[in-house]
Amino acid sequence: MFVLFGLFRDIIPAQAMGEGGELETVRGRSGCVPDLRLGFPVPLTPRPADYLPRRGRRPAAVEGQPAPAPRPTIRRTAPGNVERFIAELKVMGAGPTNYPRGEARSRDKAADRRARGLPALYRAKLTTIDRQYYGTVDGEVGPCQERLESLGDLLQVVVGYWGEVSTDLERIIRAVAEARVLHLARETGRPITDAWVGQVLGQHRRSLSAAFVRAQAACLVSRMGHLGVGAREAAARRKVAVEQELRLRREEEAYFAAHVRGRGRWTGR
Question: What is the pTM of this model?
Fold first, then answer.
């Protein structure tokens, strides 16, 4: 996320990052721009039915067998080109906002509903900065919003509470699997087949699905510590620690003030 913020650093005014500014905190800075910038050696756009990834090295001919037939020539991305995107990552909780009762039987996944609102969210944040520091008006595109649009489409990477994923994340997983097969094909000379791509894609889906479910369960279990008697006792200990830190800070300020004034003795009043 800090790499992406650096892409906006030259056009964000210093006042916005100063004390009292919109981007004073690290959380504010990371929240005004997307999280990730990704590159893929295979396209994420919809593919024709006869699409194949870029050709790897031809397999070596086995002695006593005819040489393998050349693969059909079809239009592919030029070798070495990497298609880059910006992406925003969100993880959903199991609340009524994300999973309303009226949408329980809908074919529209909750992850996709959440994903559709992400582009407008970041566009609104950068538009606010443009209006406050560059004086833009309604309908006018400011420098920050223009920079965001110049980076291309925003991939909406959303993971639902039950392990479901948004459409863009599914496209990313498929692109990762195809890139993996493309790399192995270039190393071994093995021809790329749909069955091989499907096998690697299944491995990636299983591993990521298990990771998503475990992460959601870990977050739920970790929040259990905030409940019960132990949580109240911990809150009381934190309150005592805060009061002690405040007393020590006041004592330090009083001794410093007495040192500046000259001789004197602090009475604790």
Answer: 0.65
